Each structure stands twice: as structure tokens, then as C-alpha cells.
Amino acid sequence: MRSIVKAISWRTVGTLDTLLLSFVVLSLLGPFFGLEEVNAADRAKIAASIALTEVATKMTLYYLHERFWSRLHWDRSLDEEGHHRDGRRRSATKTATWRLIASVDTMVLGFVFTGSLATAISIGGFEIFTKLVLYFFHERYWARIRWGIVPGST
């Protein structure tokens, strides 16, 4: 259950970031990539399509990623109450592996909805930076929440 709630909380943050980032990239860089005739309303629709489709694809991918990491004991310790505590290296490595998976997903969706590989790579490329920061702090926040962790379990 904890993995599901974490997935929902992250997807909320991630979807808002993708929506805003996609619209900004389409608005500022779209004309350089052959999308000069796309008006603001269409840019908003494309950005929304990318962001909303990501809800399904990324929720599934994030849940699988989270389940993998819940079984991996690397850089994890037990506190005095028997709860697992994730170290900073673990959080940083989870951040990097997730970002790789998620950025490829965003680029694929960007290409599907714009037909422009350059636009898709731009959206995914900028997203690497914004979401690395957002995800790291999301992980550090969740590392402090004990809900859903059974003492002594993995």
C-alpha cells in the first residue's frame, strides 16, 4: 500500500511538472523544431496529452521501480524501533535509475504527440534536471514517513 501511495504522490508532482515543462518547451522551442504553426491552445492540448498519458505509463513504471527497490537491501539500515532507514546513496541511486526510465518514457510520449524527435528530446532533456531535484526531495520526505513499514520487514 505504501508503494501505491508514494506512486500517487510522486505522479501528482511529476504530472504538474511535465504539463508546465511541455507547454514551455512547445512555446519557446517548438518554432525551431518545425512547430511554428501550433497555436497556444494546441500547445496546451499537446502538453496536457503528454502529461495525462504519463499518469498511466509512469504510475505503472514507478510502482514496478518501487517494488524492485523495496526488495533491495543496499544502503538500508534498521533504526532503534526496527524500521528500515534509507541512506542518501540509496536515495540518490533510486533517483538516477528512476529518472532514466521516466525520461525515456517522456521522450517517447513527446514524440508520439508532437511527431518531432527534437521536441521530444528537449522535453525529456529539460525534465531530467527538474525532476531529479523534485524526486530526490520526494524520496527524502518519504524516508521519514514510517507509515506502511512493518518493523523488521523488507
Describe this structure in words.
This protein has 154 residues and is mainly alpha-helical. It has one domain. 73% of the residues lie in helices and 4% in strands. The chain contains four helices and two strands, in the order H-H-E-E-H-H. The protein has helices spanning 2-28, 40-71, 88-114, 117-143; strands at residues 76-78, 84-86. A two-stranded antiparallel ribbon has the order 1-2. The longest helix is centred in the middle third of the chain and has 32 residues, at 40-71. The radius of gyration is 17 Å and the shape is elongated. The two termini are 14 Å apart. 24% of the residues are buried.
Quick tags:
154 residues, 2 strands, single chain, mainly alpha
Task: Spell out the blueprint of helices and strands.
Blueprint: H1 2-28, H2 40-71, E1 76-78, E2 84-86, H3 88-114, H4 117-143
Helix pairs in contact: 1-2, 1-4, 2-3, 3-4
**Distance between the terminal alpha carbons, to the nearest Å?**
14 Å
Mean pLDDT: 89
Helix content: over 70%
Low-confidence stretches: none
| C-alpha-based Rg, rounded | 17 Å
What does the largest sheet look like? Answer: 2 strands, antiparallel
| Global structural class | mainly alpha
Number of helices: 4
Main sheet: strand order: 1-2
Strand content: under 5%
SSE succession:
HHEEHH
Give the number of DSSP strands.
Answer: 2
Short overview:
73% of the residues lie in helices and 4% in strands.
